[in-house]
Amino acid sequence: MTHNHSNSSNKIGWAFLLNFSFTIIEFIGGWLTNSTAIMADAVHDLGDSISIGSAWCLNKLGEREADENFTYGYKRLSLLGAFINGAVLILGSIWVLSEAIPRVLDPVVPNTEGMILLAILGVAVNGFAVYKLQGGNTLNERVLNWHLLEDVLGWVAVLIIAIVMQFVDWPILDPLLSIGFTLFILFNVIRNLLATLKLFLQGVPEKNLYNRVTDEILKIDKIKSIHELRIWSLDGEHNVITLHITSTLKRIEEYKLLKLEVYDSLAKFDFSYSTIEIEFTDDFCKNMEG
Q1: Which homologous superfamily is 2-200 in?
Q2: What is the pLDDT of residues 125-148, one digit of tens each?
Q3: What is the second-level CATH architecture of the domain 209-288?
Q4: Cβ neighbours of residue 59 closer than 8 Å, sequence gap 6 or more
Q5: 0.70 exceeded by the pTM?
């Protein structure tokens, strides 16, 4: 578990260093090519770098062990990072749209040769950063991946536009493609942000997980019913379950065997933390009082 969190932090660290370094190159390149589109992307990438840096710090803090103040540890800090990144990306996308839409009416023709060289470099650098974040399981990593994927698509759009404008005087393609890929990314980021908000509110992390867990446990003999079933997630990767089981057991000696059988049935769901309370049919559940 510690190895997974360390690997996640390393991936985010790589993304931050690559993104911040290339942001500086973008500002210089935008000034040299007189491209407002590249300058706009540089400002957007600066916001990305800030949010990725904060996510890196929060993810590192999330590796701290549980203590008397945070008994589940600090893993939920990565959710905070995902929420911040999603919010920043939405604001950045709105800003890009506010810049691109007016350019549809008044397009600007930049230095296309310089744009092509910078776009190739942009695709390579940001594409490598996306590769470094591939396979991430946390929402933090997935939202960051959308940050970087947006940059890759943006530079692909710049490359296509620059090549076309080498032969045809169609500068309007620049704002149109910028609007297109920004709307696409905005849709996916909002979807991830809603998933993050659901986990903040301790919603069940996967669709139908509640019913699948219930069905699996009720297959076990000597289990009469289930109640007080709670399922939530710490960070989108480490899930938690607590439940009460009413059993038809008559002898206390069978209690341990039944509990082990329940844990075995839950193994397929890969919960990080499981708490099971087994009650006899004549027991009183305090949580059900009233």
Answers
A1: Cation efflux protein transmembrane domain (1.20.1510.10)
A2: 878 877 766 655 555 566 667 767
A3: 2-Layer Sandwich (3.30)
A4: 5, 8, 9, 12, 77, 78, 81, 138, 140
A5: no
